[in-house]
Amino acid sequence: MADGYPDYSLGCPDGCNFPTIQTNFIGPGLSAVARLATTASPTLLNEFVASYTTDHITLTNTGPGGGGSAIEHDHDRNLP
């Protein structure tokens, strides 16, 4: 242990389990494409393409604590 931090150079003694926040992902999106093509002559084609995309992403905490966004920390371990 150097400078108060554990030495992980030879691997993780406990399997490197890190706390995570479980979330419910809701991500409906909307996209639309409009295409317009016209032939001006046998060798000339004019084409216009327009597109629109939007996403409405909602992340809801489903883990312990219910509505906060805190990570629980085990103070008995020697992690910073």
Structural topology:
Blueprint: E1 23-26, E2 29-41, E3 44-55, E4 58-61
The SSE order reads EEEE
Structural class: mainly beta
Q: Globular, elongated, flat, extended or rod-shaped: what is the shape?
A: elongated
Largest sheet: 2 strands, antiparallel
Number of strands: 4
Low-confidence runs: none
Strand order within the widest beta sheet? 1-4
What does this structure look like?
- With 80 residues, the protein is mostly beta strands.
- The protein has a domain of 35 residues.
- Helices cover 0% and strands 41% of the residues.
- The strands form two sheets. The chain has a two-stranded antiparallel ribbon with strand order 1-4. The protein has a two-stranded antiparallel ribbon with strand order 2-3.
- A hairpin with a 2-residue loop joins β2 and β3.
- The chain is elongated, with a radius of gyration of 27 Å.
- The model has no long low-confidence stretch (mean pLDDT 75).
